[in-house]
Design a protein that fits this description.
single chain; mainly beta; 4-stranded antiparallel sheet
Length: 91
C-alpha cells in the first residue's frame, strides 16, 4: 500500500474509527476521513498537542498536553473545550 498524504506536517498521535476515521496530531491537528485516503482538517482551537481520542457513543473526547480537553458531537464540527467539572458516565 502506498503512503497517503494527510495534509498536515504535524506528527499524528492517535486515530479512532466510528464509521469515519478521526486522527489527532501535533499543534492541535484534527482530521477526518471516510476512506482513509482523502483527509479534511478540522478546527480544534488549540495549539496544545492532543494525545488521545475516544468515542463515548454520543461525543468524541480529546485529551492532551497542558490539560487540554476537547469534545465534538460528530467529529466533523468544531472541537470545543469541555465543560469543567462534567462527570462522564456510560449511557
Amino acid at each position: 500500500m502506498d503512503a497517503v498524504k494527510s495534509g498536515t506536517d504535524s506528527d499524528l498521535f492517535d486515530v479512532i474509527w466510528t464509521g469515519t476515521f478521526v486522527v489527532i496530531g501535533g499543534d492541535g491537528a484534527i482530521m477526518t476521513s471516510h476512506d482513509g485516503i482523502s483527509w479534511t482538517l478540522r478546527t480544534s482551537n488549540t495549539q496544545n498537542n492532543p494525545r488521545s481520542i475516544a468515542w463515548t457513543g454520543r461525543i468524541f473526547l480529546v485529551v492532551g498536553e497542558n490539560g487540554t480537553a476537547l469534545q465534538s458531537a460528530d467529529g466533523k464540527g468544531l472541537f470545543v473545550a469541555g465543560e469543567a467539572g462534567v462527570i462522564l458516565t456510560s449511557p
